[in-house]
Amino acid sequence: MNRLLKTSLILLFSCFAWNVSVMAQQKTDAKPPREVPSPEKIAKKMCDELQSELQLTDKQYKKVYKLYLKEQKARFSSRQADGASGTRPPMKEGNADFEGGERPDFGQRPGNGNVSKEEMMAAQKKKEQSMKKILNPEQYEKWLKLDKKKDKPKDGKIKANQ
Description:
Layout: H1 2-25, H2 39-54, H3 58-84, H4 117-134, H5 137-151
């Protein structure tokens, strides 16, 4: 009887240990890496959203797509240039706590990071002029409202730049 109990316990423990080792080797919820969308996909998605909101004609859709595609390609190339130039700020050695509760100064990033506010406003104005030529007055007013709604923070607070 004693020998049967020992054999049963050893067998039970072996099965438990084998089960744990098999479970440890299995991947849990492995997600594939996130696909980086191309400028074409982003422009198409933006145009599709406008199509549903503004009921664009085919001709308008093509023009808006070209405008957004040009804009997205410029953004994409500037992001590629930022990543390829190795301009990421260096990591701190040792204790990475910020001293004095202030954010560290990493300087200006090249590419899109050092675009002045005036340049950004000029690009926005140019985009608005192009959209005004493409859309009819009713669509343009609705587009302006949609565009302004995108710029507002979701929680209603304005974040101050530090």
